Amino acid sequence: MNAVCLQSKQAKDLAVITPEIPEPGPGEIRLKVEAVGICGSDVSAALGKPNFDWVERPRILGHEFSATIDACGPGVSGWEKGQAVCALAIHSCHECDNCRAGNTQICEDRKIIGFHMSGAMADYVCVPERYVMPLRYGLSFIEGALVEPLAVASRCVLKMCDIQPGHSVIVSGCGIIGLLCALLARASGGNVIITGAEWDEDVRLKKARDLGFRTMVVSDDNPLADQIEEKVDRFIEASGAPPALAASSDSVKWGGLIGIIATYGANIDWAITEVVRREQKVHPCMAAAWDDFEAAMRHLRDGVIPVDELVETFPLTEAIEAFRASFEKTTPKAIMIPQ
Fold first, then answer.
1. How far is CA 162 from the centre of its chain?
2. Structural domain boundaries, residue 78
3. 289, part of any domain
4. Residue 242: burial class (beta carbons within 10 Å; 0-12, 13-18, 19+)
5. Residue 278, domain CATH
6. C-alpha to C-alpha distance for 290 and 284, rounded to whole angstroms
7. What integer is the mean pLDDT of 184-208?
8. Which residue has the higher pLDDT, 313 or 265?
9. What DSSP letter does each residue of 16-36 carry, written as one string?
10. pLDDT of residue 118
11. How much is the average pLDDT of 138-145?
């Protein structure tokens, strides 16, 4: 089979390899991958960023995917060969306080498919049965590959930021997570502005405008707080740029909320005392749990996300080109299709 392997900690050291098809062990299901997305986390790991230096190499990447059931290991029942599914990205202990509360994504013993274990950028992947879920509502496999990132965005927008009709919202960052957050915020009744850097203007910010959003280019010489007419109720930081988070408080109303969905490659010098004095709430969001995946599938069923306008597909054998487009930010979302 073909698989996309992160070879070493050297930047962009990726290769399409041909490992053996894996055999499902006890309690596992072998999935035939139908579509798999390149996440910003995959990009960060492939670029050798320090916030992903914990990923052991070599590693087959991939945690955003849809698939069909191919074979079941010992002890697995109730699934049909060819059944359409997706899978939770984060595996957890199911025993700690967070797991018992349903917040499996913040289990302290969590393991992430494609980072701690072989992932789904391959023709086949084996996943424990408890993390496999049906792909509902007749969703396509391309839509299924968006379930995981949409689940992350849904958790941030609907749970953490509690965006309500009439809220003014800034989404900082116009990558796929930023665009998905903006679409969900708008669907919740928010008035949304999307920001980006100068290099985003021709592709990602253009895509945001095509989707009907107001956009702003932010730079050191043209800070966001100087461009907006009034401070906003909600600020969602999705860019992963330390200066964007450091300056976020200046664009948010006193008593407003800053949601953080990105991770960062460096520590941030943030004037936190100003956040305290303004009593601005800060709410980070880490990944997604089972109910967020279910919510994401409902969003897709309801047509909230214009999938065809967001994705660009590549054969899995052209993974290096798909990653190049992701590195260079010339595509909103690269999704690879195994042959």
1. 19
2. 3-146+305-337
3. no
4. middle
5. 3.40.50.720
6. 18
7. 97
8. 313
9. EE-PPPPPP-TTEEEEEEEEE
10. 97
11. 98
